[in-house]
Amino acid sequence: MKIIFAGTPEFAAIALQALYDSGFEIPLVLTQPDRPAGRGMQLQASAVKHTALALGLRVTQPASLRLDGKYPEKVMEATEAHALLKTTSHDVMVVAAYGLILPASVLTIAPLGCINIHASLLPRWRGAAPIHRAIEAGDPETGVTIMQMDEGLDTGPMLSKESMAIAAGDTTGHLHDKLAQLGGKMIVDALRKLEQGGLSATQQPESGSTYAAKITKEEAALDFRQSAHVIARKIRAFHPFPGAYAVFNGTVIKIWRAEVLGVSDRPAAHVLAANPEEGVVVACGEGTLRLTELQKPGGKRLPAQEFLKSFPMEGGQFS
Fold first, then answer.
1. Does residue 100 sit in the same domain as residue 234?
2. 112 and 162 share a domain?
3. What is the rounded distance in angstroms from the CA atom of residue 7 to the CA atom of residue 66?
4. Which domain holds residue 126?
5. pLDDT at 220
6. Each residue of 1-36: pLDDT tens digit?
7. Looking at 184, 212, 240, which one is the last position of a domain?
């Protein structure tokens, strides 16, 4: 079976490697254009591009696949990409966190259509940030769904689905890595069944759908008037990106890890303790929170005991 692969971040790169290691022929890989990143804002290739080039695979990076776009240069790139897809012999397109909209004109090119690897138990958490949103919402489990793509947003028929428990200490980074490995395994299994004609589709149920909106840096600001459990989930959900933060006496502090403690009668956002023995304990709208890993501007991420040596917090409060 010949596969055209489309994806961009590490989640997709792991799936690409799994397909290659399983012996599938991959005549073409699509990924997003190189983007400026880092302090120097130098152009950097995506994880999928790095993996594809290391495997000796052909790579193309159109800025768009829409033939009806507003910008002539993007329409030209889309036209060229369509031509390349049509002239590249393949059976199916596999898509994983590509980041570009696939119009109907692309979805119908491959004889077996486009199959997507989505990191949630559809129809829950359709959209761009399913891992973040599952942790933030306090879901007990998540998983991966392999689906046949249609023109909707993660609305196509499901081909396979496997669940995974969300552990109490899972961050988005931890859960991402586990789901990426699961997704790589599942897409290989699905394509093997497809080769043998044994892959059936199930329509997604109408009820239970939720939308996983893209994460913004602004929503990573913590509000200690919320409950300790809600705040702790946000800290895990926004780890490693964009990183939860709060303002302490005018200084923005990144908060990377925390644990929920008992109740307190002190006003929310007040620091109840800040010492090597207890760490940093903060009153919340409901319950208290021990902050165990913090970072000040320009500094390193440090355990609370080390952080307090250069940044005393006793008696202060977050705003």
1. no
2. yes
3. 17
4. 2-212
5. 95
6. 999 999 999 999 999 999 999 999 999 999 999 998
7. 212
Indicate the average pLDDT of the chain. 96
Both structure tokens of 164: 């995974």
Examine residue 319 and state whether it is found in any structural domain, yes or no.
no
Residue 170: both structure tokens together? 């899972």
Residue with tokens 């239970």: 208
pLDDT tens readout for residues 217-259: 999 999 999 999 999 999 999 999 999 999 999 999 999 999 9
pTM of the model: 0.94
Please give the single-letter amino acid code of residue 10.
Answer: E
Is position 250 within any domain? yes
Q: Are residues 150 and 237 in the same domain?
A: no
* Token pair listed for 141: 């489990």
Q: How far apart are the first and last CA of the chain?
A: 57
